[in-house]
Amino acid sequence: MLNKKGLTIVEIIISVSLISIVLIFLFSLYTDVQDINYEATVNTDNMISKSLMIKRIEDDFINSQAIKALNSYTENGKKGVKFTFNDNTTATFTLYKTGSKYYMSYLHDRVGETIELKEIAEPTYKCSFKGKDNSFLITFPITGLDNKDYSINISYSGTTATVSSPC
Amino acid sequence: MKKKGFVLMETVTVVLVISVALLAIFSSYNKILNKLRAENKYDTTDYIYRTHFVRKLLKEKSFSNGTYSFKDAASTTKPTDLLNYVSSIKDVFNIKKIYLLKNVNSLTKEKLKNFDGYMIDYIRKLDVNDNDVILVVEYKGPTIKDKMSNDISETFIASLKWE
Question: Which chain A residues have a beta carbon less than 8 Å from that of B42?
Fold first, then answer.
């Protein structure tokens, strides 16, 4: 009498194919989730860097004397803006590239903060300026590789003289 | 006769249950994504500092002898848009509207009618005491392209306590 235990080869082939299809689907879902997680991490890091830099600059403006002049600034491949205060101290905000990494830096009398930006498109290093009377808004456009906006917006309103565009 | 397999009703029931579960997961995932997008437009660092300068300018213009006080504007039934008082920085900072609000937690549907959708959404998220006077500023953000490549302008809102 024949033993009817076990599986036929066709059943095995069909089972293996179905399981493979499910596993391929799950694996692609896993890699998608990994990519989303990486993008979210980079986005969070860049948003924190942007916030830290704006806070550094604006706190310095609030705690310093009024700004009396704005000029464009270039030194050793670093491009940006130089702020001159009423007490004749100067501060610079610059964007630059070292190797394959991008940085932004704010220094007031050579003391300040330098922060790395991750996964960004090559910046134009050109700012845009809006100013009237004692107020101005300078924007340095920075875009992530996924088109997210990390632009640095430097705003100021105070007892400054009318300033001209440094961009 | 041995009955192997599933009947149609069992299959339909299983598919229905799994679909409902996946729909529920997808809708809560969508809610989380929308919340993340909204948070990027409320109280970002650069707009908070702009609001600081707006508050500073308004305080410089505020009268202290009781003739007119911006704090009074906060307690009227219809909120006053204070945009005209900051004409020097209105265009520089891309300001759309400025409100001074009090009793934010007890704003009725009637009073909320005076605000647009973004502002209502923002006010509902505020975590303040009833006695706090809050300066809320709505800004016009940079122009971006939507999925249909149309130009749309984002709205950013930031607030600070008047103090």
Answer: none
For residue A45, the Cα-to-chain-centroid distance in whole angstroms is 8
Domains of chain A, residue spans: 11-157
Establish if B53 touches chain A: CB-CB under 8 angstroms. Answer: yes
The beta-carbon contacts of A115-123 under 8 Å, at least 24 apart in sequence, are A115/A49, A115/A52, A115/A53, A116/A49, A117/A46, A117/A49, A117/A142, A117/A150, A118/A42, A118/A45, A118/A46, A119/A42, A119/A46, A119/A144, A119/A145, A119/A146, A120/A46, A120/A144, A120/A145, A120/A150, A121/A145, A122/A97, A123/A95
What span, in angstroms and rounded, lies between the C-alpha atoms of B155 and B42? 9
- For residues B93-131, b (16+ Cβ closer than 10 Å) or e, as one string? bbbbbbbbbbbbeebeeebeeebeebbeebbeebebeee
φ, ψ of residue A128 in degrees (nearest 5): -120, 150
What does residue B21 show for φ and ψ, rounded to 5 degrees? -65, -45
Nearest CA distance, A47 vs chain B (angstrom):
9
Radius of gyration of chain B (CA): 24
A153 has a chain B CB within 8 A of its CB = yes
Over residues B112-133, the pLDDT tens digits come to 777 888 888 888 888 888 778 8
The continuous run of DSSP H or E covering B13 comes out as helix B8-39
pLDDT tens per residue, range A97-131: 998 899 999 999 888 889 999 888 888 888 999 98
CB distance A151–B142 less than 8 Å? yes
Question: Is the minimum CB–CB distance between A54 and chain B shorter than 8 Å?
Answer: yes
How far is it, in rounded angstroms, from Cα B146 to Cα B153? 10
Residue listed under structure tokens 């004397």: A65
Distance from CA of B78 to the nearest CA of A (A): 29
What is the predicted pLDDT for the residue at B2? 59
Q: Is the CB of residue B56 less than 8 Å away from at least one CB of chain A?
A: yes
